[in-house]
């Protein structure tokens, strides 16, 4: 339990680590943003395909895998349709903190819930290496997201320190949901396989719906593609290392 709480907290606080550069920079170049986002997509696809899905089959079988993935995808799809994510290209031009800025912050809180649940479900698995692997995967996704949110807030005339604390709170929501996911999966028999499949579906949705398209929209498709492959291979090595 201690390792699950610690791993979930570190993964969630990667959002804060990602926001740290705001004290030194104000603008993130499109090229490096695309490369970072594509690298993250590779990590998430690798973790879900080679880590979460095989373990979900082992825990609960193919039916659980299918249902869990579909539920994860549908859950993220509903969130996306009803609660907007940050549109970096457009929202970075916001000139003042308004109701739209507040909506984006609320959206980040809600978006972080399924990500936290994914980490918690993974730590509840009998595969002890799966939790750290998924925590690394989610944490890698959180770092550029934290930086993007922080830059957005600064461009909305929020102070750097206040922006940093808002990012911290969004990360904290993920840590709380991770603990909830861990205890829920641990206390309900046969739920772990469904939870792992849910996590896989959620991560694949994030990668294909958000990260990959976002990394290919500014003319840096080639370096982004290489970055995606490097991220996928990096997670394979991490998966092999954790066994």
UniProtKB/TrEMBL annotation:
InterPro entries: ZIP (IPR003689). It is found in: Cell membrane. The chain crosses the membrane at residues 6-24, 36-57, 63-80, 101-124, 130-152, 164-185, 191-212, 224-242. It is a multi-pass membrane protein. The keyword Heme does not apply. It holds the Pfam family Zip. Coiled coil: none annotated. Keywords: Cell membrane, Membrane, Transmembrane, Transmembrane helix, Zinc. The keyword DNA-binding does not apply. Belongs to the ZIP transporter (TC 2.A.5) family. PANTHER family: ZINC TRANSPORTER ZIP11, ZINC/IRON TRANSPORTER. This is ZIP family metal transporter. The lineage of its organism: Bacteria, Bacillati, Bacillota, Bacilli, Bacillales.
